[in-house]
């Protein structure tokens, strides 16, 4: 049984200015114990997909299950299996940190939870803030409480929606050390992030959303091995010869060319020299997840897009 299963999920928002298709035929499974990364530019539908998973938004089509529980038909059981760290900071400012966590425990029917609450507070560097009121905390500290709140009932599936957007390096490290340990203990993690290096370091598998559609679904290692190629970067003021222009990624004067191996790098340089194109600031480096991401978003991926409706497991 997958920890999370999205089956042909579609979502159309209907508003005063017409309807908007935020999700379209999204299907994939997340295996139990997997650390899964959901990437995509702003507006791709990541938060909408998580809202559907959390039962906060109703999908227009399709079906979603969490640990086998349908998020609509079996909403309470599905919700209890999830710990969700939302993208937006929302709190009752009048409670202390400990009260906030006790109330959340009560909401899930968990009693006598103080030992676990203390452990979570310590792990997240919040132990000395337990009695502080929520309104006294900095943004970074509030973010930590949001994480603690998601974990009070020890959910098997932990969902983090851009948890590190705008947070300091220390919190990122604290958070990833803790979430990494929970994942090793068997918790499934679904993470959305803008930080591709984070996804590269943490996630076993990655799905990429673009305009509401799943455009890539691969093991992180496979995505990266598709780019175990060399990236040639340089600046030029001149037009590239047609043979190179077709495969180059150009941003203003900056040109990037992907090469399979050293011999191809040499052949690119010979072609440039032959065409009399002058290059400056020549660099040769490894491609990374960011290169894959840009290529997939431009529809020029070396990795095949998943067929619509086919979900793959770990
Ligand atoms: N309640 C809503 N009503 C109408 N449109 C919405 C609503 N929520 C989100 N959208 C639109 O759906 C698209 C996907 O948004 P979202 O899921 O927040 O993307 P992401 O989290 O990937 O940035 C965006 O174009 C957004 O403007
Ligand atoms: Mg979002």
Topology (elements, then pairings):
Elements (H helix, E strand, L loop, with lengths): L3 E12 L2 E13 L4 E5 L6 H8 L7 E6 L2 E2 L4 H6 L1 E4 L11 H11 L6 H10 L15 H13 L5 E5 L7 H16 L3 E5 L3 H7 L2 E6 L2 E7 H6 L4 E6 L6 H4 L3 E3 L2 E6 L2 H13 L5 E7 L2 H9 L17
Parallel strand pairs: 3-8, 3-9, 6-7, 7-8
Antiparallel strand pairs: 1-2, 1-4, 4-5, 9-10, 11-13, 11-14, 12-13
Helix pairs in contact: 3-5
The chain binds adenosine-5'-diphosphate and magnesium ion (MG).
InterPro entries: AAA+_ATPase, ABC_transporter-like_ATP-bd, ABC_transporter-like_CS, ABC_transporter_ATP-binding, P-loop_NTPase
Keywords: ATP-binding, Cell membrane, Membrane, Nucleotide-binding, Transport
GO molecular function: ATP binding
Provide a descriptive summary of the structure in words.
- It is a single chain.
- With 314 residues, this protein is an alpha/beta fold.
- It has two domains: 4-220, Rossmann fold (3-Layer(aba) Sandwich), CATH 3.40.50; 229-286, Alpha-Beta Plaits, CATH 3.30.70.
- It has helices at residues 46-53, 75-80, 97-107, 114-123, 139-151, 169-184, 196-202, 220-225, 242-245, 262-274, 289-297; strands at 4-15, 18-30, 35-39, 61-66, 69-70, 82-85, 157-161, 188-192, 205-210, 213-219, 230-235, 249-251, 254-259, 280-286.
- The chain has a six-stranded mixed β-sheet with strand order 6-7-8-3-9-10, sandwiched between helices.
- Strand 7, helix 6 (169-184) and strand 8 form a beta-alpha-beta unit.
- Residues 307-314 have low confidence and may be disordered.
- The structure holds adenosine-5'-diphosphate and magnesium ion.
- Magnesium ion (MG) binds next to helix 1.
């Amino acid at each position: 049984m997958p920890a999370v299963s999205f089956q042909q999920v579609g979502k159309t928002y209907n508003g005063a200015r017409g309807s908007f298709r935020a999700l379209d035929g999204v299907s994939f499974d997340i295996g139990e114990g997997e650390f899964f990364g959901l990437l995509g530019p702003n507006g791709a539908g990541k938060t909408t997909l998580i809202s559907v998973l959390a039962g906060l938004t109703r999908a227009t089509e399709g079906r979603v299950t969490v640990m086998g529980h349908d998020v609509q038909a079996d909403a309470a059981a599905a919700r209890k299996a999830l710990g969700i760290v939302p993208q937006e900071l929302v709190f009752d400012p009048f409670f202390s940190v400990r009260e906030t966590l006790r109330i959340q425990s009560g909401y899930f029917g968990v009693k006598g939870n103080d030992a676990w609450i203390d452990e979570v507070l310590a792990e997240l560097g919040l132990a000395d803030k337990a009695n502080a009121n929520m309104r006294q905390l900095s943004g970074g500290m509030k973010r930590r409480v949001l994480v603690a709140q998601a974990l009070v009932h020890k959910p098997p599936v932990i969902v983090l929606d851009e948890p590190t957007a705008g947070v300091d390096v220390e919190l990122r490290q604290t958070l990833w050390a803790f979430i990494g340990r929970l994942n090793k203990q068997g918790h499934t993690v679904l993470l959305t992030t803008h930080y591709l290096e984070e996804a590269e370091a943490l996630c076993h598998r990655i799905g990429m959303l673009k305009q509401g559609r799943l455009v890539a679904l691969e093991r992180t290692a496979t995505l990266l091995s598709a780019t175990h190629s060399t990236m040639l970067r340089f600046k030029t003021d001149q037009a590239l010869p047609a043979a190179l222009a077709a495969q180059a990624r150009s941003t203003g004067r900056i040109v990037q060319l992907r090469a399979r191996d050293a011999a191809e790098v040499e052949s690119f340089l010979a072609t440039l020299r032959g065409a009399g194109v002058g290059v400056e600031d020549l660099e040769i480096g490894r491609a990374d997840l960011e290169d894959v991401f840009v290529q997939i978003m431009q529809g020029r991926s070396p990795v095949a897009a998943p067929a619509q409706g086919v979900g793959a497991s770990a």
